[in-house]
Each structure stands twice: as structure tokens, then as C-alpha cells.
Amino acid sequence: MAESAFRQPTSEQLSAFARGDPVAKNEIAHLVLPQLVRWAWRHYPNLPQDEVQSAVNGALAEIMRNHERYNPELANFTTYAINLIKLRLSSLHQALKKIKEFRDSLEGAHENLSPTAYNRIDCTEVHRRIERDQFFGKAMKRLEGAEKEFLRLMLEGEKQTGAFAQVLARYGPVANPAREVKNMKAALLRKLQALALDMGYEADNLIGE
Amino acid sequence: MAMNDINDISDKKILADWYAYAADEPDFVGSWLNLLRERQSITPDRQQSEFGADDRAFRQLQAMPLPRSESLAGDAHRIAEVCSLKNPMAFVQAMILANNLMQSDSQAPIEEFYQAAFDADENLDK
Predict the structure, then answer these.
(1) Could you report the per-residue pLDDT of A21-62, keeping only the tens digit for each?
(2) Residues 6+ apart with CB under 8 A from A5
(3) N or C: which end of chain B has fewer CB within 10 A?
(4) How many residue pairs from chains A and B have C-beta atoms closer than 8 A?
(5) Computed from CA positions of residues A69, A24, B93, B56, in that sequence, does the dihedral angle turn out positive or negative?
(6) A11-116, which class in CATH?
(7) Would you list the domain boundaries of chain B?
(8) From the candidates A6, A13, A23, which should be mutated to test the interface with B, based on the most B CB atoms within 10 A?
(9) Chain B contact set for A65 (CB, 8 A)
(10) What is the greatest pairwise CA distance in chain A?
(11) pTM
(12) Would you say the ipTM is above 0.90?
């Protein structure tokens, strides 16, 4: 058997350990545990210290629980323990790697989502939109007939002249739809600006779109 | 982690962490003492006092491997001596009681199964 850099249990302690003697198990734990924990910390400096120590504790508890599996004639006690510790630390390394990858993917997804979800509209813009909605709600009540329908279409984002011409046609004959729609829109905007001033709103902020 | 940091951590600290770890593991004395506390509705302080153990000895006691079933009393008494308990017999009695509880718990499901196999069957068709 190869010489070991670690202090080893005596042959009497190992013999009693093999018979499951709890006092011998405890003596061996006191002898080897600090050596094994320090060995693991040195060899796995990138793993969290507490996790490494817990893995060593777990390996030692397993060895003590299954004492009959250890054959002192085949390997030093610490060599046997280190092989088990390596397996546990390898599993720990894999688990931590997976957690890191998962966290990174979450952070990446969060960074991609944030601008669209929260940052596109700032607070000033939100206040402006609320004020605008309030103004057009009040203005709608001061309009009548074709003006009211024109405003509704404009707020819905309608761009087609035909849609506005159909409104005009319901209120009278339309000789030149394009020109009459343009004139009606211009008249409506002037009226809205007047209403905005009258109500104390800044017309440029509301109607400039 | 720097090498100095590793060397600054004393064997005492490493063993204290081991005591805390092993006390919660099956096959260590802590698991049996916990079972007794639950069944007897007593506190850890009361148990510690009954064994005549100071804080350090009680922590070490709970991290000791369980006594072997074939030499239960002898092993328990040796464990009590290692941990310098002032009332070793209380600990030996506790280990015997816990062993009995463990055995009765492990037999309970078998008895229930045995009983179910002999349930009365005269009304099964009704």
C-alpha cells in the first residue's frame, strides 16, 4: 500500500472500525476529518467552502454508516475517503454549474424583456396620455354631428379619406371628398385648439400628433 | 480562498460543524435522542440534564455513531464514558428504550399487513 501524506488510523482502530465499533468510528472521524476538509478546500478552491465541507461530512457519515464496505488491506482509509469525496464534489460541481447556467439564462431573458415590458413608456409620457384622454373625453361632449364622428375616427387612427367622406355623406352632399374632408379636419383641429385653451390644457401637447 | 484562511480555521471549528451535521444524520446518536424527545415530550435541555452532560459533551454525544444492536448496553456505556457523562446509566437506558422503539416501529406495518390477510371474508359478496 502506498505511503500517505495524511495521518492514518492505527491498525487497532481500523480493526475495531471494521467491526462497527462506534468509539473507533468516532476516534477515526476526529483524526481524519480536519485533514480531509482542508485537502478538499485546497483542491476545490472554486467551490463554496461550506458546500465542500458539507460534502466531506456527508462522505464520512456514509463511510461510517457502511463500515463493512471498507477493506483496510486494499487502501488507506484517507485514500478510500478521498475517492468518495471526489465523487460527491464532482456532483456538487455539476449541480452548481447547472444552477449558474440557469441563472445566466434567466438574467439574459430578463434583460431582453425589460426594455419592452417596462421602459418603453416613461412616466412623463404616461401622464401626457392620461391628460390627452381626459381632454378628448371632455371635448367630445362639446362637439356635435360630423365633428364628433371625425374626432372618433382620428382617435382610432383612421387615415383613409374615404372613411371620413362617408361620414360627411351622411350629413349632406359631398362634391369633392378629398378637399371637403381636409377642410373639415382643419376646422375640427382649430376648434379643438380653442377648446384646449379654454379648458386650460396645452394644445400642442394634445393635438400635435 | 487563500491558504491562510484555510489554516486559520481550527480543527475545533471543523469538528464542531461535524457534530452539528452528524447529529441530524440517521445512524448517529442524535437521531435516537430526537426520537426519544418526541415520544417523551421532553426538551433537549431536560435530556442533557438527565445524562449529566455539559453543552460540549452533549453536542459530541449526538454526533457519536449508534451503538451496535448486538452489544447495545456495552457500546452505549463506552460512548457515555467517551463523552464524560455524569449519569452514564441514564444514557444506556435511553439507548435501550430507543432501540426498542425503533424495532416496534419497524414491525408495526408488518403486523398490519398480517392482520389484513386474515380479515373476515363472510360478507365480501354483500
Answers:
(1) 999 999 999 999 999 999 999 999 999 999 999 999 999 999
(2) none
(3) C
(4) 57
(5) negative
(6) mainly alpha
(7) 12-114
(8) A23
(9) 25-27
(10) 116
(11) 0.62
(12) no
